[in-house]
Structure formats: C-alpha cells, structure tokens
Specification:
The protein is α/β, with parallel strands linked by helices. The protein folds into 2 domains: 10-131 and 289-303, Rossmann fold; 134-288, Aspartate/ornithine carbamoyltransferase (Rossmann fold), CATH 3.40.50. Helices cover 36% and strands 15% of the residues. The protein has helices at 15-30, 54-65, 87-94, 110-117, 133-147, 165-174, 194-202, 213-216, 236-242, 284-303, and strands spanning 43-48, 69-73, 100-105, 122-127, 153-158, 180-185, 206-210, 222-225, 261-263. 43% of the residues are buried. Bound molecules: phosphoric acid mono(formamide)ester. Phosphoric acid mono(formamide)ester binds next to α2. The site of phosphoric acid mono(formamide)ester has 9 residues, from α2.
C-alpha cells in the first residue's frame, strides 16, 4: 500500500491545494446533500493527548456529516499513554482500525513521529507550541469568506505571540500571499520567536512589533486576538503578570475600521470582552463554523475522495 499524504505543517500544502480546499469547503455549504454519504464506511480516529473543544469536535462533526464514523480519546489519561505507551505504538495500533487519524499532542514533533510509522494519513491537530495547521486552514477560509481575498491585507496579531502556535502557522501561511503586512502586538516577553522573524525577513515581508493595540488599531483589516497560554508558562507568577495585557472592548474598537474582521482561534479567557460578541465585526464563532467546513474538505482531500 502506498503511503498516504499527511498534514503536519501548513506548508505541506501548496497554495493551489489550499485554494482547492477552500473551494471544496464552499461547495460543501452550497451543495450539502452531495456530501452526506461520501465517506460511508470510512473511519476517523481523533487521538487527543491534550484538551480541545473545537478541533476535536469539529473533526468529529465533519466526519459524521460526510457519512463516516469516528472513534478516539479526548485525553492521554483515558488512553494507554497513561501506562507508558509510546506515540509510535499507539499510532501503529490505531492505524489498524481507521482510515485517517487526527492527533493533538503536547510534544512538538509528535505528529512527525506518528506520520513516519502510520500507513494512514496523519493530521496534526496541534503539537505543543509548534504548529496547528487545521486552525490555519480555518483562519484562511474565514478570511477568504469575510474579505473575499487572501492578499493585500494588514493583519494585527495580538497577545501571546511566543507560545501561540496558531499565530506561527498563520504567519507562515500568509507569507505566501502578496501584499500582506503583519502588525505584531504583544508584551516584549511574548514576542514571536526568532525563527518566525527570520522567516518573515527571508521573504521580505512587511512587519513591525508594538506593545500598543490602540496605536495599531486604525490600520488593521484583521485583528487576530489570542489568549495568553497559561499551560506553556514556566511559572505562575509570570502568567499572572501578563494575563491581562490585552482586553479588547468596544472602547478600543472606536478607532477601528468599519469592516475590521475580529478573529480568535478560541478558547477565549478574557482577552475579548463579551460585549464585543454582538459587534458585527466579531467573527470568532463564525470562524469556529468555518473550522468544520474546512476539516470536511481536508478529510476528503487526504482520503483522495472527490465528489
Ligand atoms: N482553536 C482551538 O484549537 O480550539 P480547541 O483547543 O478548543 O481545539
């Protein structure tokens, strides 16, 4: 059996393949009935060694809506990882039961280990502070649906840009489009890692860093808020000091563009005040819906199924 494709990092997909996934996601919405039974007899495993609401449940909803089945676990403690089983052995086992695997693991690189052993497609559903490519696909679909384009945009990324893997993946994806400017809004201690800056510089991307959300606001087409990632801090004291660095409220939006798109991968803690939820520019729950549509498209793509 020939080895199938995996999705470990967003750059595993070409821009053309991403365009195709976006087109399929839109077709799924427009012609839902055509897809209801398309994955009959196919099974997806969701192996989540770390907590999740959106990613796991949207993957499961995606496969169920395609007529397939799902199985898996939602924490390491409810799998044999708790008894010391390796990722590799888990994957070799589960690969006997299913056609495709989505996995989330706290250790960076765990999905690469899994992909080396698996005979079925492996989807990285988040590995530590590293990558979260299906969130990036979600973000790209959201931007395309809201803005009608993936080029010529000024994107503000705000919050924990050091540990926020969704930010790293989104920057990497957007570097492949023309006319993108990044405004990186964070406390000094939570700036994007050097390797991300090097990637931006290597393609001559336009970007700058600031600590002020208010100063950056007027020029933004997209504001991508992120939570301070408590679970990745080495000490609680630093987390407590930094956790309320940015709280987006209606007052801060007074200087924003009327067609600003406010995004957040969620979960939110308190970095977006709930009063913003009713503002027409708030798109984060729509973004979560886009996540299901693009994961449906991705499952079909990786299984080699066409309408
Ligand atoms: N955006 C995201 O990854 O959410 P979950 O952690 O709930 O899956």
């Amino acid at each position: 059996m020939s080895k199938s494709r995996n999705l470990i990092n967003i750059t595993d997909l070409t821009v053309e393949e991403i365009d195709k996934l976006i087109a399929t996601a839109d077709d799924i919405v427009a012609n839902h009935a055509d897809y209801e039974d398309i994955c009959r007899h196919k099974k997806l495993a969701t192996l989540f060694f770390e907590p999740s609401t959106r990613t796991r449940l949207s993957f499961e909803a995606a496969m169920l809506e395609l007529g397939g089945s799902v199985l898996g676990f939602s924490s390491a403690s409810s799998s044999s990882a708790a008894k010391g089983e390796s990722v590799s052995d888990t994957i070799m086992t589960v690969g006997n039961y299913v056609d495709i695997i989505a996995m989330r693991h706290p250790k960076e690189g765990a999905p690469i280990v899994a992909a080396k052993r698996a005979e079925v497609p492996i989807i990285n559903a988040g590995d530590g502070g590293h990558f979260h490519p299906t969130q990036t696909l979600t973000d790209l679909l959201t931007i395309k649906r809201k803005k009608g384009r993936l080029n010529d945009l000024t994107i503000g990324l705000c919050g924990d840009l050091k540990f926020g893997r969704t930010v790293h993946s989104l920057i990497e994806a957007m570097l492949r489009y023309e006319g993108i400017k990044f405004v990186l809004i964070s406390p000094e201690e939570l700036q994007v890692p050097e390797y991300v800056k090097e990637k931006m510089n290597s393609v001559g991307a336009e970007w700058y860093e600031t600590e002020s959300l208010e100063d950056a606001m007027p020029e933004l087409d997209i504001l991508y808020m992120t939570r301070i990632q408590r679970e990745r801090f080495f000490n609680e004291e630093d987390y407590v000091r930094l956790k309320d660095s940015y709280i987006l409220d209606l007052e801060k939006l007074e200087n924003a563009k009327e067609d600003l798109t406010i995004m957040h991968p969620l979960p939110r803690v308190n970095e977006i005040s709930v009063e913003v939820d009713d503002d027409p520019r708030a798109c984060y729950f729509f973004q979560a819906l886009c996540g299901k549509h693009i994961r449906m498209a991705l499952i079909l793509f990786l299984l080699g199924i066409e309408k």
